[in-house]
Amino acid sequence: MHVRLLGFAMLLLIAVTVSANADQLSDLTTKAEKGDAASQYELGKLYASGQGVEKNELTALGWFKKAAAQGHTKAEVSLGSIYAHGFGVKQDWAESIRWYRLAATKGDTTAQHNLGLDYAHGHGVETDLKQAANWFRKAAEQGHARAQFNLGELYESGKGVPQSDLEAYILYTLASEHENQEHIFGKAKAEEVIAKRTRTEQKLSGDQKELAKKRTAEARFLAAVHPRKFGAPGFIGKSRGWFVWKKWNPATWEAEVTTDPPGDVFKVRVLPWATTYRHLSYGPRFDELLPGEKVNMFFDADANHRRGYCVHFQDEISQMKGHGHYWKIVETKGDKAFTAQVFAGDKPLEEKVHPFEIDPACKKWSGGKLADKFPLQKDDHVYMTWCYYGDRRVVKLLADDASLETLKKLESERIAKEVALEGMAGQIETIDKDDVQFMIYSSYWFQAGKLKPGEIVHLAATGPGYRPTDFRVEAKVVSHKNRGMYGSGVNDVMLKLVRPEDAGRLRERVTQVLRLIPGK
Question: Is 484 helix (H, G, I), strand (E, B) or coil?
Answer without folding.
Answer: coil
